[in-house]
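Protein 1 of 2
SEQ + STRUCT:
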Amino acid sequence: MKANEIKKGNVVEYNNGVYQVRDIERSSPQGRGGNVRFRFIMYSVPGGNKLDASFDADDNLPEVELLRRQSTYSYKDGDAFVFLDDEDYTPYTLDAEVIGDDAGYITEGLGNIFVQVIDDQPVAVQLPQHVVLEVVETPPELKGGTATKRPKPAKLNSGIEIMVPEYIANGERVLVNTTTGEFGGRAD
């Protein structure tokens, strides 16, 4: 597949590795006769190591067939996370290193997760944009203070800590953006 045909989310072979393209920047030539260049921000599959590489429009990158299977988080097996395919209940096991920081958003029964599979091997997960987590520890709101909206730290039931508005209390369920790790509002 030529570099100018590749879209975000495509999985390609490069330097004897497999990478998913997350971002593409196109740079136009400055002078006459210059070539359009494409800068790809790619992450290795598995592993999630970031790679920044530039290509000419007609550089060829072999595409790799990646299946995305909608799954639900089931349980932890030692350090590994086990997800069950929503259709045929195939268990997909991914090591903690592969899950990386996403582990902080995964709680029991979390659905709408896409497990990415290459050659029958689960290689990565794609979490939903927002997850609902419970605040387990946060300082109380300062009463009688000025009406400023100062954020405060809150520890969540999955073990991560995020900044939340002052009015959020222990026991509340909140939406957390899995891309940015930011507070996204109260959950219903």
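Protein 2 of 2
SEQ + STRUCT:
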Amino acid sequence: MSDDGFHVHGPHDHALEHVAEHAAHGNDEFSGKIAVMTAILATVGAMFGYQGGATQNDAALFKNNAAIAKTEAANRWNYYQAKSNKQNLAELAVTLPGVDTEKYKADVARYKTEKDGIKKEAEKWEASSAEWNHKSDEAMHEHHQWALATTAEQIAISLAAITLLTKKTWLQYMAYAVAGAGIALGALAWLQIDPIGAMLLKLGAGGHH
């Protein structure tokens, strides 16, 4: 803890520190390459992490908008029900002897017209709520894609640290492969392409035949 508050380490911060220290004390070309690669991966991972946080915030905002719209729809439906009750009473009054039937018939017609307008408003708010929920689901799914890409970069950084310790070339190539997979996942998230989701949707559609 510093005087300014707590400093929370990320899951790959120690690996980054180890790579930096090792590269500083080592002069060989191999260590230098790994250090450069790690710095690049850390930058890419930070960008992915930022995008993941942004999409998560969007999902929460959209979900909140959906809840607001749902509440407005419920209020309209309650108002609709109140008008229906008044219409029913007016219809009942028409059948009673000694009352001004024309007045109550006019009330019935007025309540019916008012109900139609209220119903349209309620349906409009319900549609808005459904749309916001859909946007929230999409944003949350995109967040998961960014999270996977970030995790891949963190794993690649950890593999780079192990590579420096062991000097194993195959670990270096594995770090490259994982980093490449993370970048590919990030590119798909950026382009809003979800091959896994599309495949599952296709399989689900095929199962209904």
